[in-house]
Design brief:
The protein is an alpha+beta fold and about 600 residues long. A hairpin with a 4-residue loop joins strand 23 and strand 24. Strands 17, 18, 19, 20 and 21 form a five-stranded antiparallel sheet that branches. It has a four-stranded antiparallel sheet with strand order 1-2-3-4, with no helix packed on it. The protein has a four-stranded antiparallel sheet with strand order 5-6-7-8, with no helix packed on it.
Length: about 600
Amino acid sequence: MKYTHIYKRIIGLTLVCFVSMMAAAGNPPLFSTGIAQTDKGELLFTQKNLKRLDVFSRDGSSLLRSISLDDEPTGLTVDDAKAYVTTFKKAGKLQIVSLESAKVEATVSVGSGACYPLLSADKKKLYVCNQFSNTVSEIDLLTRKVVRTANVLREPKSAVISKDGRYMFVANFLPQQRADVDIVASCVSVIDMKKFTKIKDIKLASGSNALHSICITPDGKYVYVSHNLGRFTVPTSQLQQGWMNTSAFSVIDVAALSYVGSVVVDEPEKGAGGIWNLACTEKNLFVIHSGTHEVSVIDHPALRKKLESYPQKENLSYDLHFLYGIRKRVQLEGNGPRLLYLRGNELLVPTYFADVLNKVDINSLSVTSVNMNPGRVESKENAGERFFNDATQCFQGWQSCNGCHPGDARTDGMNWDLMNDGVGNAKNCKSMLYSHVTAPSMISGIRETAEWAVRAGFKFIQFYDVQEENAQCVDAYLKSLRPVPSPLLVNDGLSEKAKEGLKVFEKLQCGECHSGPYFTDQKMHRIGENVEFEKGWDTPTLIEVWRTAPYLFDGRAATMQEVFEVHKHGIDKKISKKEIEALTEYVNSL
């Protein structure tokens, strides 16, 4: 089967979801992915759903004009009369927009998953995180060409440059390692800006994943990075006190290029699920809680003093009392705040799932809001995505479904000891892509359908009685998910190496189990000697497998090549190293 035929078989499902969204009356959601302000005081927003750059009045109450983009925007920065917008659906691009002519005047091809445009201090260069290429691009704004590329780790999502310009700190969204060990954590990569090469990976506290935002203190001493902390080493038998997931930000010493500790932003009886963006001034550190729809305003000098005098910083990541007395939680209007923008004494926070712009006075902490999209109507799929990310659909707000399935319902790269199949047998977290059409669910196949798995997840993981109507919306959202094209594809097709890998795939008869349009026979198979269940393991889909490391039921293989080379999965014939490399390329192209 040729690769292009796979998507032809499922394109009809995509059209059905598109028609469903268009059927709703009223204005579609905006889904803001970037915010900035021009020298004139106008507010800029990139709107993912409508593929456009919107220019609003200074107070956010009036849409002045819109600039169409040819792809979904993922990030935004502005300088003078130019807006720099990263876009990605199939190919990563930087689009340079003239705010005077309201047109895209240049497009620069970057890497897969382009996001987070970052200007250099002298405004001569711009940097783009390429989430799925696992690289950072440096663009010369005079020639408008990529001049250098640096390799980092796994899914770079944001970056910041040190005050002296020597280093770039890059937040890698997910861990890049095997999962069947005691310490599993994402890293912050450090790039030497002179050579533009990675010189170090700073590992965070065990369980750190879903790194979203990064910032540097005004004095340049520390870097803060926001992330989830998964307590994957214990059974998921309870939720309170941060038993499963907590929200935190890690502190990195810039001069030493070293990890200092992680500060938990939850409270003993009140979670702050869904940590997202952060920013700091000399006076305050601001932290967005997307799942509980709040912003924490932290006394920055008090935080620094308390942090630096803390005796055993390795215990910080468990201290739910650390922020007592130096932090205030401010409730916002709307649902799903993800972005923030500091403007003088005002903090601007749009909400992703409501299109409401919050304006927080950072002195009085009073909140006013503006509805940026009157008449907004969400589809069933839109509502499902909102519920999937909403920590208020959880006991005490500790987590949402996104807590274990970040990055559009994919994987957190860790093993979890769920209660549905016994205790002491942690399994690797699966992506939820195509879960509703590849039953049974869970690696153990313990859930007969994905519908039942969704409801059981709310009941036994969120400790929450979800309304059936809401659960059906989550089903609709998960059914609407579509794969991101593999960064290994060449002109939307297989590379020559992957074509050779297809021959190896057929030679080894991998298609006997990984068959059909989803590359699964939807059956259970006994593989290896230590088979926990009599029927064996569920056959997972191979579509987007390039994105779902680590592999095998307990995440023992960090890469797909290890699956074949070390663990000999599906290999009962003698094959060469070259064939294994080709097979790896093919599978990672699906």
